[in-house]
Amino acid sequence: MILSIIKRFFRAPLQALAVVVLAAVLSASLCGLHAANEDARARYELTCQTVPVTLRVTNLSGTRTDGLEAPTWVLRVFNSKNVKNSLKEYVKDLQIKDLLPINEIQLQANLEKELTLVGLTGLEISGELAQESLVTWFAGYDESVLAGKEPVCLLPKSLLPEGYTPGEPLTVPIHFRYADFNQAFHGTASEYDVELTVAGTHAGDSGMIYCPYEVVKKAKSYLGRPSEVDAVQATLIDNSTQAEVREIANNWFAIPNPTGEQTPWRYTFYFYYPYALVIDDALLVSAERTLKISVLINELCAVLVFALSAGASFFVGFLMIRSRKREISLMRTLGTRTASVFFRFALEQLLCLGAGVALGGWFFGYQPGDRLGAFAAVYFVGLCLALVVFLRQNLLTTLKEDE
Amino acid sequence: MSITLKNVSYSYRGKYQTVRAVAGVSYDFEPGRMYAIVGKSGSGKTTLMSLMAGLDLPTEGEILVDGKSTAKWDRSLLRRDAVSVIYQNYNLFPLLTVAENIRYPLTLKRVPGKQAREVARKMRERVELPQTYDNRLPAHLSGGEQQRVAIARSLAQGCKIILADEPTGNLDTANTANIVSILRSLAHEEGCTVIIVTHDMGVAEQADVVLRMKDGTWTE
Predict the structure, then answer these.
(1) N or C terminus of chain B: which is more exposed, having fewer CB within 10 Å?
(2) pLDDT at residue A96 above 60?
(3) How far is B209 from chain A (nearest CA, A)?
């Protein structure tokens, strides 16, 4: 039978070629859509993993991240190797913000406002500073200095000495004085002087001088102030670990809902340390939405091509069989069983279809087996359906119509 | 092998109306004789022939082939082994060569290749077609030659009932005589039951029995 089918292909190549070309074109378009879809999915996966998702320590109602004075255990949960299940392995760029009121500063500017030294491990920690984007770095400096230990600072523009030319060396001598309850008993206060090199200026809050977190930490240590930080923020390394992070966070921090159910254990933390760890994935949500639409459009296109291929296969099958109606009738008239006629025609079309699908995949240079298999199956079922419809027709009526 | 019609009727069910093509026809066709059924177009003779060929079952009555109703036959087997049909338009497979067309019924009967080729050769010689025609496609033959190939295929089929629907309708006088002569010899020499449906009274006159049809039934 195969031999006779091959002979037929050689004797009437156009009909077979039409099916091969149609199958190849549809396969290639399906491959293209699939490749685009895979690409969109890959981008989706990658984006979902890499879009920055931040963890913020906040007050329990989740409305404030500044002025928390989070104790050291908060940092240890994030950062220490010694704390079991610390969040360190899940986060990158741990950002800390710590504040220290300045008692004296030797600058020529008119100090009408109280000054605060803000220790940062990076610019991103301070939303208002990053949003302003009006930081001007002096030659030789950039934001990386804030992550180090160098005694540098970013001055508000209003504090620059009059007549100062940017680029000239400038230092800011600062005096800290801390009076704790010991002073009441001993009559002494802790004092600390530091001289910061000006690395640049900013156009933000005129009461804030930004410096590396380590500088503030060191000053606090000299002053004997409690080791607390004002805000802690981190970025997840990989967003797929969100569920684990939430689980760990729930063990260390209260849920940001003061009316929510608290376990006795959590209640202890809530009582002494009213902090919550908030996962802020607004960026991820918006990125996901955009990508989901892109994937959905590709999927819809793929479904459309599938529907088209099913329709086309039925149409092509029907036309092909119509054009060979006489041949089929003759075969049946001579005593060929309907099943044999079906098998022969189905095999013939299957060979054309196989060649077409292989050609389409090869032409595109990419062969997603499952997609092409499903496509071939849909196409083949369409052809078979057309064949069955025709073979079910009354032979006598068919011959009469043929006359 | 005989063929018997018992009160056979057949109706075509169209979209808007039902047409009764054959109306209560009865007859006994005996082996070894050539019959001609004549009648005007639309008289029901081709429908009757198609029913005898097992292309469909009568809507009423029955047709007995070799004493067995066509309703009880496996109709594929009936068409393959008992009744062969020759058509006016030859009905050859356009993409099979002459030899392949003649061999087709033998392939259906799973006759081994060498034996099938031998039988096909003999049948081709019997209808007086030269060997050079073996590899030709039907499109390259004249009408008379195509009809001879159709007869050779019918002979190769080896059926004892041969139905011919206007077998000479597209042929010239010489070819007509030749074809009728072959059909007569099949009836008289090989004991086949040959039934010819024809308009041509010249052909009908050479039959042993002439049956006339009008409005789906016999007329005198």
Answers:
(1) C
(2) yes
(3) 26
- Indicate which of A4, A11, A340, A399 best probes the interface with B, i.e. most B CBs within 10 Å of its own CB: A399
Quote the strand ranges of B40-146, DSSP E: 60-65, 68-69, 83-86
Nearest to B129 by CA among B147, B110, B112, B105: B147
CA distance B167 to B155: 14
Residue-wise pLDDT tens digits, A18-42: 888 888 888 888 888 788 888 888 8
Whether A109 has a pLDDT exceeding 70, the answer reads: no
Task: Kindly tell me if the per-residue pLDDT of A132 is higher than 80.
Answer: no
Cβ neighbours of B191 (radius 10 Å): 13
CA atoms of B121 and B103, how far apart (whole Å): 9
Q: Which residues pair with B20 in a beta bridge?
A: B11
For residue range A350-397, list pLDDT tens digits in order. 888 888 888 888 887 766 777 778 778 877 887 888 888 888 877 777
The CATH number that domain B3-219 falls under is 3.40.50.300
Interface touch B12/A333, C-beta < 8 Å: no
Give the mean pLDDT of B127-142. 89
The residues on A that touch B, with CB distances below 8 Å, are 7-8, 11-12, 326-327, 330, 332-338, 394-397, 399-400, 403
User: Measuring CA to CA, which residue among A396, A400, A1 is closest to residue B75?
Assistant: A396
Tokens 């390259």 -> residue: B140
CA distance A7 to chain B (A): 9
Region A175-189 average pLDDT:
76
Contact assessment for residue B71 and residue B51, using Cβ atoms and an 8 Å cutoff? no
pLDDT score recorded for residue A73 = 77
Using DSSP's 3-state secondary structure scheme, residue A116 falls into strand
Dist. CA A2–CA B101, nearest whole Å: 17
d(CA B178, CA A111): 129
Q: How far apart are alpha carbons B36 and A14 in whole angstroms? A: 43
Interface of B with A (CB under 8 A): 12, 46-47, 50-51, 53, 55-56, 76-81, 84-85, 91, 93-95, 104-105, 108, 137, 153, 157
The label of the residue with tokens 């009059």 reads A162
Whether A215 shows a pLDDT value over 90: the answer reads: yes
Nearest one of A69, A63, A205, A58 to A131, comparing CA atoms: A205
Which has the closest alpha carbon to B103: B85, B75, B124, B130? B124
Give the residue with greater pLDDT, A290 vs A1: A290
Of B56, B95, B157, the CB nearest to A396: B56
pLDDT at A123: 64
User: Closest partner residue to B55 among A327, A333, A338, by Cβ?
Assistant: A333
Contacts 24+ apart (CB under 8 A), A23-26: A23/A352, A23/A353, A23/A355, A23/A356, A23/A357, A23/A359, A23/A360, A23/A376, A23/A379, A24/A355, A24/A356, A24/A357, A24/A359, A24/A360, A24/A363, A25/A360, A26/A305, A26/A308, A26/A309, A26/A312, A26/A356, A26/A360, A26/A375, A26/A379
**How many Å lie between the alpha carbon of B110 and the closest alpha carbon of chain A?**
12
Q: Measured between beta carbons, which residues in chain B are less than 8 angstroms from residue A335? A: 76-81, 105, 108
Per-domain boundaries in chain B: 3-219
Domain ranges of chain A: 2-45+288-402, 66-237
